[in-house]
Amino acid sequence: MNSGKYLQGDLLYEGKAKKVYSVKNDKKHLWLHFKDDLTAFNAQKRGSFEKKGAINRDIASMIFRHLEKAEINSHFVENVGERDMICDKLEMIALEVVVRNFVAGSFAKKFNLPEGGRISGGIVEFYFKNDALQDPFVSDDQALYLKTARDQRELETLKRLALHVNRELIDFFLALRVDLIDFKVEFGRNHDGDVVLADEITPDSCRLWDRNSHEKLDKDRFRRDLGGVGEAYKEILKRMREVHGGM
Ligand code: ADP
Ligand code: UDP
User: Fold this and answer.
1) Residue 216 in contact with residue 232, Cβ under 8 Å?
2) What mean pLDDT, rounded, does the chain reach?
3) In this predicted structure, what is the pLDDT of residue 34?
4) Does residue 98's CB lie within 6 angstroms of at least one atom of ligand 2?
5) Which atom of ligand 2 is nearest to 42's Cα?
6) Which fold has domain 8-88?
7) CATH number for region 91-228
């Protein structure tokens, strides 16, 4: 496939939700292809729905554009085709950075708390991005020992950026009548060594609850066999277009 400006190169990596290609004659960019696949519990549970890749590509790119206006730099360059994105090639930091605004998921389980309690200000957690180890939680010192982050300053940068993304996204989703319960982001370093937001922000990587009904509009519908997975993702994109359309 090509987009005029960019030519799709070789497949470099196939992940659970995306395929990563090089861009021909271009070392600075990557070509991300969003698949229809859905996985949970470290890929032990697998599924898919039609157009999921296209929906997530559109959601992610709208969010990156929105964050750019708040001066949060991301890897996003431009969309190509229906479900592909050109982005800056980064040296990825092998941490999943989770921010929580409400008790849910593994946090609820770990501390035996009911889901839905507010965590004011938001808290940040680091997980070591390693499928074989099932992405274990790591302390700052463990992350430094594993050399995932360069130094404590870089960890502080990750926390600061994650909380900035959080503040922007809380308002972004509130405008859609949706509470941002928690989310995961990944970061990488650009040529200058600056930390930049990467990967994706989509209903795969966020918990999104309808403000009034508390209905789940994210991957928990798949994880917990609630049905209506595709409808929930479509509903998020529909509300985004209604409220933040024209981006
Ligand atoms: P996973 O690897 O967890 O299965 P995906 O299927 O989403 O996830 O694969 C996308 C891969 O691309 C991830 O490993 C992610 O860290 C990596 N990635 C995302 N953005 C960039 C980027 N800008 N530069 C380099 N790698 C990236
Ligand atoms: N998350 C993610 N990828 C992961 C683990 C978590 O995108 O590999 C997201 C998840 O969708 C949720 C947030 O990070 O929005 C917090 O997830 P949690 O630690 O509660 O784990 P879970 O119970 O979802 O596995």
Assistant:
1) yes
2) 97
3) 98
4) yes
5) 8
6) Phosphorylase Kinase; domain 1 (3.30.200)
7) 3.30.470.20
